[in-house]
Amino acid sequence: xxxxxxxxxxxxxxxxxxxxxxxxxxxxxxxxxxxxxxxxxxxxxxxxxxxxxxxxxxxxxxxxxxxxxxxxxxxxxxxxxxxxxxxxxxxxxxxxxxxxxxxxxxxxxxxxxxxxxxxxxxxxxxxxxxxxxxxxxxxxxxxxxxxxxxxxxxxxxxxxxxxxxxxxxxxxxxxxxxxxxxxxxxxxxxxxxxxxxxxxxxxxxxxxxxxxxxxxxxxxxxxxxxxxxxxxxxxxxxxxxxxxxxxxxxxxxxxxxxxxxxxxxxxxxxxxxxxxxxxxxxxxxxxxxxxxxxxxxxxxxxxxxxxxxxxxxxxxxxxxxxxxxxxxxxxxxxxxxxxxxxxxxxxxxxxxxxxxxxxxxxx
Length: 363
Hints:
Elements: E1 2-6, H1 19-33, E2 37-40, H2 55-76, E3 81-85, H3 96-103, E4 107-110, H4 123-136, E5 139-142, H5 145-151, E6 160-162, H6 170-173, E7 183-187, H7 194-208, E8 215-219, H8 225-237, E9 240-244, H9 248-255, E10 260-262, H10 272-279, E11 284-287, E12 302-305, H11 310-322, H12 324-341, H13 344-362
Parallel strand pairs: 1-2, 1-3, 3-4, 4-5, 5-6, 7-8, 7-10, 8-9, 10-11, 11-12
Helix pairs in contact: 1-13, 7-8, 7-11, 10-12
């Protein structure tokens, strides 16, 4: 199929790295692996960071963009399907819904996020658009159980599908792990909100186990770096290595030399970095919060602790620092989990099955 791909929150070519950008790129790669032709149809961001953002200006640009795309299709022909990745109340699809109706194209969404508790004030209109898109979609593909449950009251079950979060695992699986004892590692942007909250929880836990022999390597950067560094304080600051932003090959190499991946995961939709770490042979220590259980198999590829329990989180890290046999068991399980269940090859086959079946149903 010839597929028009659109990500209203962040284009796959956006210069700032993030989980959204990575998943958009991997979805395109999975579709192409299945033999489909994929075109990123628009770079337009519909994202509104706050309720008082200029809605009129954004909507006007969306109308112009829809007209541009429409003119191109009238001349060169329309695609076979429109796939919208991650529409939600701050970034609804303002382009695809109308175009798909106008040109009679199947509309598919991946990772639609909808919760009725967001139906407040200015966000209510955006919420209506998100739900409208999900209701007209030939398929709504959910990457987490939470997203599935959010849509179930409004969408027929035969148009709801699950696709587990996945990665292109080869860059990590092809490296032989050479873990350095006591070396902890994390990969995360440094910004306010959930990321800063996770850094705070990690720092607090490491203070709890300052008597144990460990070092921490931090890959990532961002506007909250000064605040993040301050969280670790003088007592353990000398044991933390600040590596800044790295590319995929550099991250894969660094992960292969660590022994435990540590990141609490506050507010994570699922956390692709967890899958990368596990593919590299690292057991994960995280909290059982938000979408983290979608990416970490508790007791099989890592340890998940109760949300907000600083002591339990610290003790889980301590356990793996002290118990080499348990750490190695989880490390083997982590690689096996990603290789067998979360690699792009399995995701590509599943994705192809979903979109091919829904197009046939539409025919």
